[in-house]
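Tutorial handout. Part one gives the primary structure; part two gives the three-dimensional structure as tokens.
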Amino acid sequence: MDLPVMPPVAPMLAKSVATIPPGMRYEAKWDGFRAIVFRDGDEIEVGSRTGKPLTRYFPELVDAFRTHLPPRCVLDGEIVIAREGRLDFDALLERIHPADSRVRMLARTTPAGFVAFDLLALGDTSYLDAPLSERRDALTEALREAADPVFTAPWTDDVDVARRWFDHYEGAGLDGIVAKRPDLGYRPGERVMVKVKHERTADCVVAGLRLHKSGPVVGSLLLGLHDATGRLQHVGVCAAFPMRRRQELMTELEPLRMESVEGHPWADWAREEAHAQSRMPGAPSRWTGVKDLSWLPLRPERVCEVAYDHMQGDRFRHTARFRRWRPDREPGDCTYAQLEEPVSYDLREVLGT
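Part two.
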């Protein structure tokens, strides 16, 4: 491979802000795997946000890139999978599998797509120093003849349109808006874009904790919600605490510590079949295949309010943010029924297909 921009390249990143800023270019925030695609003739390499290759996990996209991309180019974008008109991140996670036969089976049954939103190189020209406006014009022209499963992300410079996208696109599985300065060059690894994500709150049962890697203080709180049958399901964690607060939480929660999991709602978490019926901590990671055993059970008697952006199935898609304790709430009242459901929106309308 011989390109003006060579792998690995760390993608340009975004920092979170509370509101959509004026005077910028706006795109939807895609909920998938960030990927930088390098093509030099028949040679294709797909790099992840961390620089590790994703190429082997998406063979159908490798074929599509040879068909739909310019012969020599470097693109930044997102690998996504859609089901029933909305993005499905769980289906993407299933692709990270060591067995090539399973990866190829999933490529046939749940094929992925690629949404391009930036151009780093084309032919013998590097676009890293070119302003975003120039890069986007070149990207649109380069992919003018591309077709499913390769798409160009829609954009607007109208902040009112961006606000409408923020409200409507969530129903298609997108999780916010990204804003970029039109005069900005491509800055690998730097947080020079901004992102605005949805935030909602929920009252959750604190039913366990994991220790911090630095020692015997709280690393994360394990959160639960009761389903329609009354069973407490593990829905995610909140983890961003200053070190002093981690120590305070350990002291606060000590009276709830259980000597063993016996009698705990997640007592049977170690059994594989239990994970098929309920969501609980300790399930094998889709990235490593290793079961996480390192959690401490707490009597599920305390309720906290957390902020979250959106749900992926029956759990929080990202780490939740601790807001406050809720001594006025009963654990039994912490159910899925309190969660707001976004209005459905067809992903095909986002992509203009």
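Part three, for discussion. Residues 272-277, 284-291 have pLDDT under 50 and may be disordered. The chain has eight helices and 20 strands.
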